[in-house]
Specification:
The protein is mostly beta strands. The chain has 5 helices and 13 strands. The chain has a single domain, classed as Alpha-Beta Complex (hypothetical protein yedk fold), CATH 3.90.1680. The strands form 2 sheets. Strands 2, 4, 5, 6, 7, 10, 11 and 12 form an 8-stranded mixed beta sheet that branches. A 5-stranded antiparallel beta sheet has the order 3-1-8-9-13, with no helix packed on it. The longest helix is centred in the middle third of the chain and has 9 residues.
């Protein structure tokens, strides 16, 4: 599950990092967001036939298939399971033709500690590098509105101490294949290598992130917390989505 994350780099930084053009003009304005929640506007990196290459685009988090009558189900479409993404009707077309990268500083999950206290964690690069979640995008409506989802997979290594699922993380050498890979993309769903996962920090942070009205870099500052062995990730399944989202 990935129900809350941070993406704070500017469009200029993202176009440089991902060697992409800027397709955010005349669309939803993007601003640094340390507490992204479902249906918020976020940057994605996708391939554009019109501009003949990668572009950074503003998209609404929560994929809405082009055939959907309205956007009411978007908040439930923030994640696509890697195990079924190729066959689920809502995602299959986008998986085959509209894959994207979702830039992030890191993502949040909540675990239940001794006494039932919910402790948020921020998973982020130890070196401060940008993370790229595997994503899908879809246009919706006549204008159109761009929408997106994050592909998730079973959690690996120490990340399983925080939650039983995680975003599919794409190291830099997999960006190009994810965006413009083979016609049969199922091989692109391989988990990241262990050495890449070793560079992810599991950082306990304060409870303020539980309210989406809160924003700012203070949300990602480390705080003291019990050892992860004392918490139960299964007991806190989807806690991040059950907090104050709307």
């Amino acid at each position: 599950m990935c129900g809350r994350y941070a993406t704070t780099r500017s469009t200029v930084d993202l176009t440089t990092l991902f060697e992409a053009g800027d397709d955010t003009l005349d669309r939803v304005p993007l601003a640094p967001d340390y507490n992204v929640a479902p249906t918020d506007p976020v940057p994605i990196v996708r391939m554009s036939q019109r501009l003949d290459g990668r572009v950074v685009t503003a998209a609404r988090w929560g994929l809405v298939p082009s055939w959907a009558r309205d956007t009411r189900g978007a908040a439930r479409m923030i994640n696509a399971r890697a195990e079924t993404v190729a066959t689920t009707r809502a995602y299959a077309t986008s998986f085959g033709r509209r894959r994207c990268l979702v830039p992030a500083d890191g993502w949040y999950e909540w675990v239940r500690g001794p006494g039932g206290r919910k402790q948020p964690y921020f998973m982020t690069s130890r070196d401060g590098d940008v993370l790229a979640f595997a994503g899908l995008w879809s246009p919706w409506g006549p204008e159109p509105t761009f929408t997106c989802t994050i592909v998730t997979m079973p959690a690996l290594g120490d990340l399983s101490l925080v939650h039983h699922r995680m975003p599919l993380l794409l190291p830099r050498d997999r960006w190009a294949r994810w965006l413009a890979g083979p016609a049969d993309p199922t091989g692109l769903l391989a988990p990241p290598p262990a050495e890449y996962l070793a560079g992810i920090e599991l950082r306990p942070v304060g409870p303020a992130v539980g309210d989406v009205r809160n924003d700012g870099p203070d949300l990602t500052v480390a705080v003291p917390a019990p050892p992860l062995g004392a918490v139960d990730p299964a007991a806190a399944d989807d806690v991040s989505v059950n907090l104050t989202l709307f």
